[in-house]
Specification:
The protein is built from 14 helices and 20 strands. The protein has 508 residues and is of the alpha+beta class.
Length: 508
């Protein structure tokens, strides 16, 4: 700038200040017009470019991220995993439908199911949202109403939060009056019990039960505990326990062999000996051999105890226990990689009700899905024995790598193995939650499937996403397989024959 340029500018300012009020008003009015035009231009750019950016995000198949509120990666990763399970979202929709018909209902925000449904629908792109990053603080607020004090500034565990959500949903369901019925074993194994299938032991009419409060959430399953006396082979009554997730310990790895999900599952159901247990049958046999009805002491023997899956849920959550303890008593994290597949076969781990041989064929005709390899008269057999049953060949072990099956993420290739019997309890992987770090600090991320396109809402996408709080990107299938899983979310795949069989039983 020339030396006289500054003097000229100062003179212009003095002339403006020395002018009258009308001149100053005219100058300020011109600046106001320019500011208004700029604001209108900015608003127009938002209107024009905003929807285009939204359409680009939807077209790429990405999902919204979640804001980290301090140390809430445990909650964000779990919500991303749950949002990839369509059956769970569908159950929430049916569960919350009764709130729309209630009269004098309190605020909907007091219900965990309503808050959770809104978040999962937004994360699964079933609800239109203008934000690429969502705020899940509403979930923490509603959990506090259920007496769960979860701080967003303290590191928490995603698996513990999963049980908090499922138990709170059960508490919400139990607030309504329900009628407890006496079910038989076959009814306990069914995923849903219709009014016609429920029978009371008194053979009297059943009181009406609301459909909203009969069904359990799709993660609800049942474990069976079976005990057999080693001395007389007497089997005690089967005990049923509920579960929301299978918490599997990681057994010691064999040298040179990779650890697979099947190894963890077999270790979970492996039999164990329980000593010094009173056997009523041995006591009865001993009493029959005594003279003059002499009283004898209860006979104590050794029993073999084994866990099986009495009822497999529609959505299966598998938790790999990575907590261990050193000799000094300090917590350590196990970093072993556990191999898993896109598809999980659970037939061998399913408990079967022992039946008489004469009625076995009749049972097979009525309930074809209740017959599968892996058990004999309700007792589990060894994996090698189940796999070598006549007429059937194993497709693959869960977690074992096979280049013919695992080159890409897609449909289960049953047609490629015509000599194999199709599995009944087949599950498809939907999400993987991974924890990076140690037992004292770390970070949770999620691998999940991209939501299906609106043109095919029932299809299952083969595109995987990596989600870390508010960061979302595409991920390859090999990247998913190489991750150190902490939580695995599977969803059951029903064949067409199973759908037809369930429809026939519902009509009966």
């Amino acid at each position: 700038m020339r030396p006289g340029g500054a003097a000229e500018a100062d003179g212009a300012v003095r002339r403006l200040l020395g002018a009258g009020a009308a001149a100053r008003y005219k100058a300020m009015k011109n600046w106001g017009v320019i500011g208004g035009v700029a604001a209108a231009l900015a608003a127009g750019m938002y209107v024009l470019w905003g929807p285009i950016t939204e359409r680009k995000r939807r077209r790429k198949g990405l999902v919204p991220g979640l804001l980290n509120l301090g140390n809430t990666c445990f909650m964000n990763s779990l919500l991303q995993g749950l949002s990839s399970c369509p059956s769970f979202i569908k159950w929430l929709e049916e569960f919350t439908a009764q709130y729309k018909t209630e009269q004098n209902q309190p605020t909907e925000h007091q219900y965990l199911s309503v808050t959770l449904l809104r978040l999962l629908r937004a994360l699964s792109c079933q609800e239109v949202t203008e934000d690429d990053v969502l705020d899940a603080s509403c979930l923490l607020e509603v959990l506090r109403m259920y007496r769960w004090q979860i701080s967003s500034f303290e590191e928490q565990d995603a698996h513990e939060l999963f049980h908090v959500l499922t138990s709170s949903l059960e508490d919400e369901r139990d607030r309504q009056p329900r009628v407890t019925h006496l079910f038989d074993v076959h009814s306990l194994e069914q995923p849903e019990i219709t009014q016609k299938q429920i029978s009371c032991r008194t053979r009297g009419p059943l009181p009406p039960v609301s459909n909203h409060w009969k069904s359990q959430h799709p993660f609800h399953g049942r474990l069976t505990s079976n005990m057999v006396c080693k001395h007389c082979d007497h089997q005690s009554p089967v005990r049923y326990d509920t579960f929301d997730s299978l918490s599997l310990s990681i057994p010691a790895a064999l040298w040179g062999r990779p650890m697979t999900l099947d190894h963890c599952l077999h270790h979970f159901i492996s039999s164990e000996s329980v000593k010094d247990v009173v056997c009523d049958n041995c006591t009865k046999i001993q009493a029959e051999g005594t003279l003059n009805g002499q009283s004898i002491e209860n006979q104590r023997t050794t029993f073999v105890k084994q866990l099986k899956l009495g009822k497999l849920p529609q959505c299966l959550c598998i938790h790999l226990q990575r907590l261990s303890w050193s000799n000094q008593g300090t917590p350590l994290k196990r970093h072993e990689h556990v191999q898993f597949n896109e598809f999980l076969i659970m037939d061998i781990y399913k408990y079967r009700v022992p039946v008489h041989k004469s009625s076995q064929n009749e049972l097979n005709q009525k309930h074809p899905e209740e017959t599968a390899p892996g058990t004999k008269d309700g007792i589990a057999v060894k994996p090698s024995e189940a796999e070598q049953s006549p007429g059937t060949k194993p497709l693959f072990m869960n977690g074992a790598r096979s280049s013919s099956l695992l080159l890409s993420s897609g449909t289960f290739p049953l047609t490629a193995f015509p000599e194999c019997s199709p599995p009944v309890y087949l599950y498809r992987l939907m999400a993987v939650v991974v924890h990076h770090g140690d037992m004292h600090s770390g970070h949770f991320v999620t691998y999940r499937r991209s939501p299906p396109s609106p043109k095919s809402p029932l299809a299952c996408s083969s595109q995987w996403l990596w989600v870390s709080d508010d960061t979302v990107r595409r991920a390859s299938w090999q990247e998913v397989l190489s991750s150190s899983a902490y939580l695995l979310f599977y969803e059951r795949v029903h064949s067409r024959a199973q759908h037809q069989s369930s429809e026939l039983r519902a009509k009966e």
